[in-house]
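User: Structure tokens for both sequences below?

Assistant:
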Amino acid sequence: MTAYAIAHLQQFAPHPEVAEYIDRIGETFEPFGGRFLVHGTAHEVMEGRWPGHVVMIAFPDARLAHEWWDSPAYQDIAPLRSRHIDTDIVIVEGVAEGYDPRTTAQALRDQLG
């Protein structure tokens, strides 16, 4: 099942190391089947607060996303970002094709009794 690495980049300030990180990141996830879905695009906050930027990378599955994250190639460049940008990053699995949210709603109702 497709998995996603989602980053919320906050307090971004241009820096040469960040440019190097951006230049090199693609080559770190390509061997794991990763590809950008969102990168450097504008977003519109519909509710709440979301300062900063969003990055989303898709992987064929969560195992490959974790292998990318743990890979020497990615770990080598991660400090280029983390020294200059406050970031929250999660890896999350997508839902199966045909997912019906009513099933989740019913499970919640069952838990509530």
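Moving on to the next sequence.
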Amino acid sequence: MTRAAVLAGVGSYLPPRRVTNDDLAAAMDTSDSWIRTRTGIRQRFFASEGMATSDLAVEAGAQALKSAGETTADAVVVATMTPDRPCPGTAPTVATRLGLGGAMAFDINAVCTGFVYGLATAQGLITAGTAERVLLIGAETHSSVLNPDDRSTSVIFGDGAGGVLLRAGEADELGALGPTVLGSDGEGADLITVRAGGSRQRLSGSPPGPADHYFAMQGRAVFWHAVTRMAESCRAVLERAGRRLDEVDRLVSHQANLRIINHLADELGVPRDRALVNIDRVGNTGAASIPIALAEADAEGVLRAGEHVLLTAFGGGLTWGSTVLTWPGLQRT
């Protein structure tokens, strides 16, 4: 049989600090109505003082391992745009704290598409025989890079982590990852960015401006890029998988904005009630958004064994990607 990467466990973690729209409205020129109308978000969670991305990742990784009934992995991959430090990567720290020291461990930064890029990477490690089990975690502490004076971004993003354990298996098993379609367009690098901190700014000869250390996004342009690119990659991956759009039981897109999720479903002709939505409760958690949504939906019994699931994301870079799988029957813990 063809060797495949099979989803064996899921887990998620949200930090303890719950921030409502009213909390934000007390600190900036916004309102609960303004935020809900434009984003669909009513609350999000921020890391407490002293927490870092690795802290969130460890919690989600531990839950994914527990869900799979496993205690080991050969590789730990962390998808994040908010690492603990520019150097070294966050994944080795996470691996060691999970008792997986010695395993290969590295970060991926494809911004909000990081988890889908990570699935393709984990799939490659497993199908090549380099690893038997890969722990993939998407984790973000967006609160560390949000500009409190920019309501266009600071009301959207939240912190959190989600993870999956992938194991070697066979292509006809429930949970086996199907083909993946990935893409990028560097012409849009300035649409979603943090300008300061990298070599481009440090070697420019000019000091960074006050806002350059914070996350910035051109929302209107990003909206249409996101819908278009995710729809294109969804159609392409379904064609490769030999599936039709009317066979999609669950659409799980990056939780960027409720309007984007709805427009994407409409563009694909997938009924909106088949799209998983948790952005109202957790905000946009970047690379963590898809695994958090999967973990919550599985725990609530929304995802059922045998359902055809379509995953898709769009993020900075610009980057995008989609993949498919048939949902497995996971252990409930």
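User: Anything stand out in the second?

Assistant: The chain has a mean pLDDT of 96.
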